[in-house]
Structures are given as C-alpha cells and as structure tokens.
Write a structure and sequence with these properties.
By secondary structure, the protein is an alpha+beta fold. It contains 15 helices and 14 strands.
Amino acid sequence: MDLNIIGNEYRLTPDLVITYINGKPQLRLPSLHSRIQVDWKVLSVVSAFGGGSKETLSSLKSVLSEGLLYSIINKLIESKVLIPVSEHNKSEITKMIKEWSEWEEPTWFMHLESKNSQYKSADDVGEEFAKSAEPAPLAYKCNCKESEIPLPTPSSLDNNCLSDILTLRRTCRNFSDSPITLSDLSNLLFYTGGILFTNSTRFFGRVSKKAAPSPGGRHSIELYPVVNYCDGLESGIYHYCQKHHALNLISKEKDVKPFLNDTLYGQDYFLDASVTVFYTSVIDRLKWKYKGSRIYRIMHYETTHYAQNFLLTGTALNLGVFTTGAINESLIESKLKIDGIHEIPLYVSGAGNKMETSPYSRADITLSEHLPEDVKVSLPESLSSVDEQKILG
C-alpha cells in the first residue's frame, strides 16, 4: 500500500502514551493494558503519524528502508497503535478523551489502565503466593516506645439510631473553640481505624479486622490527628497507634491553624475544628499482595470507608464533622515526616463542637418526600459570611 494512502487511512489510537522505563521507550495503550518496548525507528514512524503529514511519513525513506518502514507500520497496525480513521472517529475512547479533557491526561490514562483488571481469587494464587512472597510488612505503625499517650477505652454508641446518624450527618463549617473530650477523640479514632480483632488466613498470614473494610485485609491506612482543642492533650501533631490504641506525639505546636490553613488551601471555616485527621496509605502493605494499577483505585476506596466511619462516629457524638480532598500533599508529607513514596497522604476529615449559629437562612430547601416518618434531618448551616455564600451558594 502506498504511504500516502496509509497516511490518509490510519491514525494513532487516541489513548497512546509514550513512557520511558529505565531509559527505554514504551508505547502504552491503557485501554488494552498493552506495553510495547520500541526503538528510535519505531518512534520515528509514530512521530510521523502524530504530525499528521503525509510528507513527513514519506521523508522517513531517507533514514529507513522501504521494507523496514512497511514492516513497522504493519506491526503498529497489528498491535492497534494505528487504527483506521473510521474507527478512530467513532471510538468510545476518542469520545472519553474529548469529554474528559478538562481533567487532563492522567485522569483518563489511570481510568483506562485500571479498568477491567482481571481478578484472581485467593484459591487461584494462594499456594503459589504463600511459597514465593516475602514476609508481610507490618500492618501498623507503632512508635509507642518513644512516646505513648494511652487513650481511654472506647465507649458504646448505642444511644443513637443508625437512621438518625445517617440523616444528621452534615458538613460543619462553624466550629466553636471549646475542646472535645479525650473520650470523644478515643471513640473517633477507634471506630475509624482501631483494631477489633485479628485472625489467621490460609495463605496471607494474620490480618486485622476493623469497623472499616479493607482490600484483602491489608489496612494500608494510617491516621494522624492534628489536635487543636482537646482536654488533656497539648496542641500538636500526633500519630494514632492502632495496635495499642494510643497516640504518639510527632511535634508540639503552639498553634496548628497556620499549618492547617496552608495545607487545606485556605479553607478557614475548618480551622477551629478540635481535631483534624490526616489519612495516609502505606503502599508496601498493598504491594505485598496486589500487583497492577487497579489497586490505586481501591486504595482510595479504602480511605473513604475510614472517613465515613469518622463522620458517622462524630455525628453520633453530636460533634460537627467535615471532610475534604483539597489538600497540599507536599506540606503534609513534610510535617508528618513521611516520604511520599512508601507512604502518601490521601484525605482529611475533622470534628469539633459546633458553634451556635444564627437561625437557618439557606434558601430554597425542599425535604424529600421519601423520608421516613419522624426522621431527624440536619439541614445546612446558615452561612457565616458573604464570601462563604459565594462559595457554597
């Protein structure tokens, strides 16, 4: 086939990404979970199609023999790096990339790369895994020998109806500066990330079980409470040891608000919360068992399971609660003394005593007609400033 015809009839697949692993180029097709290691000759052909110029494709004859040129093109077609124009134009991938363009390339790349990943059951991989795997990394961080502040035994939350807790949960943006109790903090941390029990498994060693679910019982999440106002605790940054249900002091802070303001990108309506909890994920706990990119999705799911428990526990304790993903990870890494590689920040939530606000003033509230009888519903708070009204509507 003539090069001009090929140039007119084929396009690069829309999800093609070129990466360099150990200095060697790879063509990545995330929708096909395909990686093809190539050399400069193949990259020259790919670049020619990327330029959209028939003349550019023809000019490669000066550096590549015609036979080699056609051989490379055929292999690119066979591997679906090149696809017919008609297929390109109607491709669902083309539509996705266009529709998701405002979210930028990493979003659709990660979505496609981790989509439809094959699942293997424990029975499929268990015996082989048990023979070949290195010993499991510790399922928790503990620095209690250096500094241990025991927390009170958690209390029962049985004075609350689950349906009320679910419907009363509302993001709080007006916190008072009155401290929460150490018992409140104990409950928040235990029901969020405390260990209920441990048990042995057939292939994967001993695992912890908590109130929040975790992929494969790996529980990669660690909790770092930043204490603002709490009876019996100094203001500062702590780590929660789930094994001993205790706190380890990382650094004393006269005032944690400047750090929180910078880390939460100026969300100043959260700064008076009594405690703000940073969630991190210890990657090695997941890597030990799971390979492949889909675990990056599941890691985030796990974090939100923890955060939901935090929010519902705080609501059951009649505290105001919030959560946010608008965070500066680099500042968090520096303050928590984590490397951002083996352990990374993912999420933030907080709790505190609610400020007495003015009578409800949000406009145009319509309760759902499907609410159960006598259910309690927490409505959004009145807005405290003109700026907040602009932000929240």
